[in-house]
Design brief:
Layout lengths: L1 H28 L9 H23 L7 H32 L9 H35 L8 E4 L8 E4 L3 H42 L1 H4 L5 H28 L9
Helix pairs in contact: 2-7, 3-4, 3-5, 3-7, 4-5, 4-7
Length: 260
């Protein structure tokens, strides 16, 4: 009897664990033939990361008036953090949306979700972030003396009749603190904008999914590898470069604003 009870307990545990293991397998591998977290998917992610790094360096080298190296590094590292944050967000969103619609086989291709996410990111999220940054920039400058893209420190001029601040020599620690302060603000802006877009995608996912799914047959892309390379490397090559250039234009110091 004790062996029978042990056998029953074991089979009961297996029956509970089996759907959990299947769910984990779906989240890791994806419910369709296109795998964002497979070996090919990771390799393509590394390739597009190198492309983005090259684009960031090119932006600096082609500037008419080149920023100091540390300023460029601070400005671009904001985009590096944002890109890493965005990649994780898009991959998680792609897998979760595909898993959420696991009962609908036609909505389970992770490459479609990723193509949708990266396109909306680069064409819509970029301009949402631009709008919110433009809105908050004067508030941050006037209320908190935070000028986006400026990592120097200032002190009050002493003239109460004029709201002016005088540039003073900044230590490395002060510059890093000012940078981290701006990085936190930038991540907050991105999070707000991404939540808006994710909610929009959630409620319009069927219509938007069908539109983006039609891109692959239009281009004659049938295999999972072809779809993966196009959605994660070829299209982001253009879209990410566009995003980097546009974001750099509003993340660096606004030369029209002179705090001093």
């Amino acid at each position: 009897p004790s062996r029978m009870h042990a056998s029953l307990r074991q089979s009961s545990a297996l029956s509970i664990a089996e759907p959990l293991l299947q769910g984990v397998h779906v989240l890791i591998r994806g419910p369709h033939d296109c795998e964002l977290l497979g070996a090919e998917g990771i390799a393509v992610q590394v390739a597009i990361t190198l492309v983005c790094a090259f684009s960031m360096i090119a932006v600096w080298l082609l500037e008419p008036v080149r920023r100091p190296l540390f300023v460029w590094a601070f400005d671009m590292s904001k985009q590096v953090f944002a890109a890493g944050y965005g990649k994780m967000w898009n991959i998680a969103q792609s897998i979760i949306f595909a898993q959420f619609l696991r009962g609908h086989e036609e909505f389970q291709d992770q490459c479609v979700w990723y193509l949708m996410s990266i396109t909306i990111d680069c064409l819509f999220l970029t301009f949402l972030c631009w709008g919110l940054t433009s809105l908050t920039r004067p508030i941050l400058l006037n209320q908190f003396q935070i000028d986006i893209g400026d990592y120097e420190s200032y002190e009050d001029s002493g003239d109460e009749s004029e709201m002016k601040h005088i540039l003073r020599s900044s230590t490395v620690g002060e510059k890093v603190y000012n940078y981290l302060e701006q990085l936190g603000i930038w991540i907050g802006i991105i999070t707000v904008c991404r939540l808006v877009i994710s909610v929009f995608l959630f409620f319009t996912q069927h219509q938007v999914y069908r539109s983006f799914a039609s891109v692959f047959p239009m281009l004659g892309l049938e295999t999972s590898t072809q779809k993966l390379i196009f959605s994660v490397l070829v299209w982001p090559f253009f879209a990410d470069t566009f995003q980097i250039v546009v974001q750099d234009s509003f993340l660096k110091k606004n030369r029209a604003v002179d705090v001093s």
